[in-house]
Amino acid sequence: MRIAVAGGTGWIGSLVVREVRERGHAPVVLARSKGVDLQTGKGLEEALHGVSRVIDVSNIATLNRARAFAFFEQATPNLLSAGEKAGVEHHVALSIVGCDRVDTGYYAAKHRQEELVHASSMPSTVLRATQFHEFAAQMLARTDTGPIKLVPRMTTQPVAGREVATALVAAALGEAQGTAPELAGPEVLQMTDMVRQLRRATGQRALVLALRLPGAAGKAMTTGELLPKEDGPRGTVTFDAWVQERAAAVAAASAA
Fold first, then answer.
1. CA distance 182 to 52
2. How confident is the model over 105-118, as a mean pLDDT?
């Protein structure tokens, strides 16, 4: 089976592509580096030829509301429309637990993406997941603030990216659910603590500072509005275990 992965070159997308291959299917990566532009639609129809499932983990690295809305309001309809023309049987979109409760620019745009998927005639599933363990690594990898890493105060129930990838591919191979049960990790943690733990384990010297976002959104992020409110699937990989794997990989790369 040919399964398209929109955003298949990113952090989570590469894990989804690997999971598709491990299940014996053929991934089709939809990304600009592969000649496909989701926002303009360039290359989409050709890339989706013979594809029966689409997994959308496309993303834009911005907190700006206007830019985030512009991306999803262009990319999502293009992907859905091209999928319908190509005869795609099931469209799966990854979203964020609490995106309808935390009114920041990016979260609000993800909620808008959900609305666009649900409003289409395409058989679809929206899977909301909590923040990934990998989000801590992304915070440390930021270069725009130099050695000082500003980390939002956030109460989260993080889940390993590979478990999200497994859930997305399983959802795509199944029947359309509309809205799937929310996916979260095994424990509730503070994002600032996660970043500091990863920094220590990987020997980085960055200064990690907690940033409280202003207004109702900032309060919501610290008071549990990004946590799942109902029962659902829970990952088994703890953040401690993931950090140990990450630290070992960094050490091995340094020694090579």
1. 24
2. 96
CATH no. for residue 77? 3.40.50.720
Domain range spanning residue 186? 2-255
Domains contained in the chain, number: 1
Interhelix angle 134-141/11-22, nearest 10 degrees: 140
d(CA 29, CA 36): 9
25: closest CA among 49, 43, 52?
A: 52
Q: Give residue-wise pLDDT tens across range 13-72.
A: 999 999 999 999 999 999 999 999 999 999 999 999 999 999 999 999 888 899 999 999
Closest by Cα among 76, 105, 59, 98 to 183: 98
The answer to whether 97 and 164 have CB atoms below 8 angstroms apart is no
* E-state strands within the chain: 2-6, 26-30, 53-56, 90-96, 124-129, 148-152, 155-156, 178-179, 189-190, 207-211
Does this model's pTM top 0.90? yes
Q: What is the pLDDT of residues 58-110, one digit of tens each?
A: 999 888 899 999 999 999 999 999 999 999 999 999 999 999 999 889 999 99
